[in-house]
Amino acid sequence: MAINKKITAILLLFILSVGCFSGCIEQGPDDSNKKPTVLIKHPVEGNVVANMVMVSGTASDPDGDVLLVEIKIEDQDWQEAYGTKMWSFDWNLFLMNDGYYTISARSYDGISYSNIVNVTVKVDKPEIVESDAHKWAVFIAAANFPEDNDSKLGNGGLFLAEDMAAYFIESYGYSTSNIFILFDDGWLRDEDGEGKPIMTLQERPHDYDVTYGGATNQNVYDTLNHVINESNQFRDSEVFIWIFNHGYGDYNNSLTGGKIFERSDVFVWDDIISDRDLGELLSPLKSQKTCIIVDACFCGGFADKTILNFPTFFLLRSGLPKNGRIILTGASKFRQGYASTTQGPLFTLFWFEGITSGKADGFKPGLFERGKPTNLNLFKDGKVSVEEAFYYSSYTLRTNEALEEYDTSHPQINDRYPRRGLILSKKEMFLGES
Description:
Layout: H1 2-27, E1 37-42, E2 48-49, E3 52-60, E4 68-73, E5 79-80, E6 86-92, E7 99-108, E8 117-123, E9 135-141, H2 156-172, E10 179-183, E11 187-189, E12 197-200, E13 211-213, H3 217-231, E14 238-244, E15 265-267, E16 272-274, H4 275-281, E17 290-295, E18 325-329, E19 339-340, E20 344-345, H5 346-357, H6 386-399, E21 412-416
Parallel strand pairs: 2-8, 9-10, 9-14, 10-13, 14-17, 17-18
Antiparallel strand pairs: 1-3, 3-6, 4-5, 4-7, 7-8, 11-12, 15-16, 18-21, 19-20
Helix pairs in contact: 5-6
């Protein structure tokens, strides 16, 4: 009898054990799920990098969709990348020490993480020592945002930025390590900017090894702060900043754009920067030879101008104009600017044409600083200044019959180079010259 009870107890214990074990199997993870994969395409193992790197790659999941991709630099925390199937991550190196760094990536499908992939690169930031290298140029254009925007400005801003950068390198002696092009979110899109991302700017073939990145708020601030810190070390520094995008205003208000008591604003990829924001950001910049161009709708406030060269209300001043600076805007505070989706903004196009072709040589301010040509060789010296190119562009937009519908933009200028005042500012600014 005792033996039967013992057998019964053993059987009961076995049944309960099987039941518990079976329950664990039913409630456990889905063994049929397959791990996602991830690949780092750029940079590749052993690359030497500096300034700013857009880490990019691809990810996939055999039985579903990848929910996110995460990136880690050395022992830092994991951070989410931008995108999934095609992803990117902005890694700014401005404050990093030189040395070797390992980039890690993983993807996640909601159940499992992929295997971690690693790439080791060398950070080696060039030192600026030659006098001829004390020149910096930053080109910023966020033209194709957001995804549901039906007024995208295309890839023309990128192409124009690259043309200007190449000219600055070849003609003005700018170092490639001191040139930054920030465009959209860092991806080139097909259908002239309106389609799907094709590749990152860094992966795309380009003539010069300049620094590329997305025109995000963080990248803009990091890049400009870097230029300020580097250029402030030298008394002969030259700084050129170009910003192109949509401006913020009332397009239905043809008289003032609703900007009488409002600041001028320009969009970046994920934010809006006001004229005052940019003024505060650039307030520590000591360069006594700075040219800033903002080409957007209703952007005259960046030059502290409204229209026809009239100043803005003193409480709405941007703080950008200072001694040693020329501020140019592609439109007045009250008017729209215009752009070609394949070539870029019209004001800058003609400003750049005036410089590269020499056509702007001898152009003068004219009435309300709107520009006029001269037939006197006395005023022509065989080279083109920032100011002459401004007057040439303004004049061309106003008088060219083929551009009749664009003649109301009224570009503005605030010239305080080398000093503020009618007499002290008569010296012209020639980029690239000591």
